[in-house]
What does this fold into?
Amino acid sequence: MRKFRKIFHPKTTISTTNKNENVHTPNSPETTLNNRTFTKQSSPSINNHLYTESPVTSTNPTQSNSISSGDDSLPSVQYAKMRIISSPVFQLRDIISALLTSIPPSCDLISTFITYGQSLGASTIHGYLVDRCYDTQTLINDDFSSYQGVALCITYDALLSEQQWEDVFGIHESTSIISKTASSFFHLTDFLCILSGSRVVYYDPNERMTNDERAYVSIFDLENDDIEIFQDQFSPLDYFLLKSKTFYNGTLIRLPLRKTSTTQITTHILTLDDIKQQILRYFHLNESFIELLLMQTNINLIEFDYTKDFQIFTKFLSIDKHSLTTIHDAQSTTQLIHMTLSKQTDDINTSNVTRWLLSIYNDYNENDKHEIQLKLLLPLMPLSSSSETYMSSNISRNYQSIQITSSRILYYCIIPSLNSLCQDNLCIQLRQIKFPQAYALFLKNLSRLINPTTTLNLSIDLIWQLMPDIDEYQRLLNENQNYSLQEQYLKIIYNLIPDIWSEIGKQELFYSVTDGWGYVAIEDMIINNVKAGPIQDVLTFVFSEANAPIVILPPHVINGLCKYSNKHYLQVMTPFHASELLAKNSSIFSHLTYEQKLSLLTYIILNDPDPGLVLELQLLPLANNQFITFQGKQASTIYIVDHNLDFLKLFQEKNYDKFLNANIDKKLFDILSSEIFQVCVEFFQFHMYRSNYYGRYGSTTQPTDNSRRSISASPSPYDRGNNE
It folds into this structure.
């Protein structure tokens, strides 16, 4: 630390027999400037800690008087090797008191701990509510005895670097004061202890580190300094230094709780139970998890225990975060995160599981000339019981939220914050941070997580839900015209929808159901827009058999791609496509069941009643549950009876191959038997006419005009004339 002043104290024994013996040469002026002696009045319990290497007295009268007098009855003085930071010219406690007035006392304390963990690069934070007291005989200053009681200890599994000592804990050469975030601790305590590696630092805003000048920081090196003289001061660290005694492989912040309300910093007093309730409330809310996932991405485990002796621990809160899977892209990374919150309240243990999707988009900002990260967070399964009212009044959010669909809220943050962003228009700001591009890549990565080869219990419907529906937003805008704030947020997404769909169209995020294709670009895929059911299934099968890249999409996705995609052509499946494919791949019919063939005929005829689409297809349903080609090479006569199965009972089953199957969809039956359809067939040389014969199958009564008609498939007018 650049501000540390290394002060090596002379090792001495106070002599009362002859104070003028063994006088050493005084220090040079340069040495005097850089090496100063800081003293502490002795007490009976530390008399055995005097240095005895060589008896030394100072030739400087002022210094000699400060060390010893001629009166042997006065207490002797002990020397310790200690480095300090002198206080600024102003009173540090006044600065801290001013800072405390602008910082909320509760939630910011906890969020500061978590923020420090992220800054240190820690993955684990472990807190201890320590309900015990330590001896007070050998302290740096007797006034510190009140800090030997109950305390909150926070540990991190990361060591502080030299730069982090300055950046995180605010020892800045320019000001020499504790940072504003560090001042959050002083709502709780008047005395800080920081242990990292072999270094121990004490912070006293009341500036009582030495007796001869105001100093607010003292630093000790456990590996090189003799700290026995301050044994009680270091005793609260024994549990963490148990193995080494000189080194802790991590970082510890110890905050002894304030005992009296008459301190110069603040009069606020908290108990261990108060802190416990603050912690439980903080982690009871979705907002705390959002903050943790967006801002503290390194941290995977948070635990808090209560202990009286560091032998028996009662865990009252645990948060375990782990990534189930991660998808890496050139510009983005998307994770599926599983978090478990376990806590003990009123001796009742509960556990709550949450799931989140976190996407990090990396980009370079040309205006601010540095790299940025846009983080997107989507709750899949948030906390089941949480009230959002408590946090909103106690913590400032470092993130924003956006209603991406009618049922989904997306949270996002930009790191670091950009000065060049538009502050007046959120829609422009979202375009500046490239939100549409980041969101499209997030959907692309999500499609990889949901593809059929994974077992993450994620439905493809999730992707469709996250793709904005322009018609839905228009409806929501119409419904919320009287709610200005909600309408404002709806308009933001409504105005961004073209940008989002344009970016979606650039990504290969649609997975083909045809084996071997995988993800396809939108200009290559054939979209199956048929409603889910038997017809969709058979069309997918038919096109897949022909090795066509079939993609099944809902209507609002097709609508968005058609309206806003920068691609000039989208291949949406039509009856014409199906007819053309079946005509070129007639072998497919041999693999189809009766129901599948009937579904194909229904799809083609009901969506495009053009007989030309079925002339060459083996899709004419007969009463014997077989199919023949509508227009065969040889003429044949197929009779049409009313849509009533009772008519068929008049004929033998062996003759059912001469009748149109009446056991089909009535609308389909009516189209096939309609005069309009027959006229169209005649136009295509597919002749349908009414038979002049009756009683042909043994009927003893003359049928009515509508009781029996025939469909004759004839390749030439000559055959038709003979029949007539």
User: Anything to note?
Assistant: The chain has four domains: 83-276, 317-417+424-448, 454-579, 592-686. The first strand starts at residue 39 and ends at 41. The CA atoms of residues 142 and 437 lie 62 Å apart.
